[in-house]
Amino acid sequence: MKSALRSLRGFSVAALRLFLICAFAALVLDVLWGVFSRYILGAQSRWTEELATYLLVWISLLGAALTFEEKGHLGVDYFVGKLDPAARWLAALFVEGVALLFSVGVLLVGGWILVSRTLQAEQLSPALGWKVGYLYLAAPLSGVFFTLFSFEHIYDLFARRSERGERVVSTANGRK
Questions:
Q1: Which residues pair with 131 in a beta bridge?
Q2: What's the rounded Cα separation, in Å, for the pair 21 and 15?
Q3: Are 59 and 20 spatial neighbours (Cβ–Cβ below 8 Å)?
Q4: Residue 96's domain spans which residues?
């Protein structure tokens, strides 16, 4: 079971990376075409700016999820590094809990509400003519990845702590 979950996780991370590479390549080509059509052909294609905006949103949200999976986000760990190991563990657990709450509340639930209402309104993007609700799927989709990665990080925190034989709960005076 555990190896099946790891292979599913590995596949999803690899698919996310591949999607981001393709989306970034499309963004580069789109911007190059926009510049070429504007300065060489004399009139910029009207869809290039809108496509670039939506691609940038998708790349930003899904790229942030991938960076979160790799624990690559910036952090101020100077003060946390000064704490004893039990307090560092609690701080890490707190940070992961906040990330989990944000990803579920804002990205998953809020993003799904945004997508649903926009699809119900049948709103279309002006230049591309695409349903905007589908373009907003980047928010709940990134929320799925953030949530899964948060659960994985929390599981890893508890697994590392139990491997070291430490108690999960410490007393009020800091002793174990």
A1: 124
A2: 10
A3: yes
A4: 2-163
In this structure, what token pair is assigned to residue 127?
């230049």
User: CA angle, 119 as apex, 137 and 127 as ends, to 5°?
Assistant: 80
Q: Based on the structure, what is the number of domains in the chain?
A: 1
Other CB atoms closer than 10 Å to residue 142's CB: what's the count? 25
| pTM (whole model) above 0.70 | yes
Half-sphere exposure of 138 (CA within 13 A, CB side): 19
Give the Å distances, CA to CA, from 41 to 44, 51, 97, 135, 172: 8, 19, 52, 29, 72
Residue 37 covered by a domain: yes
pLDDT, one tens digit for every residue, the chain (176 residues): 567 777 888 899 999 999 999 999 999 999 999 999 999 999 989 899 999 999 999 999 999 999 999 988 877 777 888 889 889 999 999 999 999 999 999 999 999 999 999 999 999 999 999 999 999 999 999 999 999 999 999 999 998 888 776 554 444 444 44
Residue in this structure with the two tokens 């034989």, named with its chain if needed? 165
The label of the residue with tokens 């790229």 reads 63
In a domain, residue 33? The reply is: yes
